[in-house]
Amino acid sequence: MKSKLILALVALAINSTTIMAQEKIKQTAGRDQLGKFAPKFAELNDDILFGEVWSRTDRLGLRDRSLVTITSLISQGITDSSLVYHLQTARQNGITRTEIAEIITHIGFYAGWPKAWAAFNLAKGVWAEDTEGEDARAAFQRQMIFPIGEPNAAYAQYFIGNSYLAPISNEQVKISNVTFEPRCRNNWHIHHATQGGGQMLVGVAGRGWYQEEGKPAVEILPGTVIHIPAGVKHWHGAAADSWFAHLAFEVPGEECSNEWLEPVTDEAYDNLQK
């Protein structure tokens, strides 16, 4: 029994290492801007800071790393393009307009009021679209009976754009309502299982897409049912001009796991809209 447990832990560690390697962040800003002038600095920036430190998501998630970074920069009074970049990254990593306002307000009491004012001036620009987005979100909520839920921060690194998650049931069968803003989609991924497993999607509101590798994309409308067997590489998300929500049912199985892969490129996604 003990030997089986050890083997299982080793297998889990190997699988985690594989997944982490797939999540490694690729950064080229150093080489793009300083590659010829300071090649070593560019290398350290791209390969060490982002390629290794930011990529250690098993120790600290991207959302938390964004929070630590913007707090550090604001506290030092750094309000140049680097703060703008990290504010944009924080937004991509799931920090909302309401949260960033509260974060900067809190920082102001410890780091200084002028630093908070300067940071707010930049944050307003980064989250400018969210005021309109909140109105659109409220309008979309009125189209369906299930709640939109909270920002899908835990999985933000696997999505392009903003998504929201509302748990519907955790008993018998796990069901969640997943909402995507226009153009938002998740990465290619695979649901693994040694027996059973997979996922089922049911369109709730708006319009979206589902695609299996090597097959044409399928439009998802309210009432559309998508069956996804275990082992099938696929992605799903919103259409470019519509919010979208679907219920996600986790099909029971044995030794189920989820493997996240590469993002769906803008080129591939935009071809669906034509």
Task: Detail the topology: elements first, then pairings.
Layout: H1 2-23, H2 29-34, H3 39-53, H4 62-75, H5 81-92, H6 97-111, H7 113-126, H8 128-141, E1 150-151, E2 159-160, E3 163-169, E4 175-180, E5 185-186, E6 189-192, E7 195-196, E8 199-206, E9 208-212, E10 218-220, E11 225-228, E12 234-238, E13 244-250, E14 253-254, E15 257-260, H9 266-272
Antiparallel strand pairs: 1-3, 2-5, 3-4, 4-13, 6-15, 7-14, 8-11, 8-13, 9-10, 9-12
Helix pairs in contact: 4-5, 4-6, 5-7, 6-7
Q: Would you give an account of this structure?
A:
The chain is of the alpha+beta class. The protein folds into two domains: 14-129, AhpD-like (Up-down Bundle); 134-272, Jelly Rolls (Sandwich), CATH 2.60.120. 43% of the residues lie in helices and 23% in strands. It is built from nine helices and 15 strands. The strands form five sheets. Strands 1-3-4-13-8-11 form a six-stranded antiparallel β-sheet, with no helix packed on it. The chain has a three-stranded antiparallel β-sheet with strand order 10-9-12, with no helix packed on it. Strand 9 (208-212) and strand 10 form a beta hairpin. It is globular and about 50 Å long. The relative contact order is 0.10.
Short overview:
By secondary structure, the protein is an alpha+beta fold. Helices cover 43% and strands 23% of the residues. The strands form five sheets. Strands 1-3-4-13-8-11 form a six-stranded antiparallel beta sheet, with no helix packed on it. It has a three-stranded antiparallel beta sheet with strand order 10-9-12, with no helix packed on it. Strands 2-5 form a two-stranded antiparallel sheet.
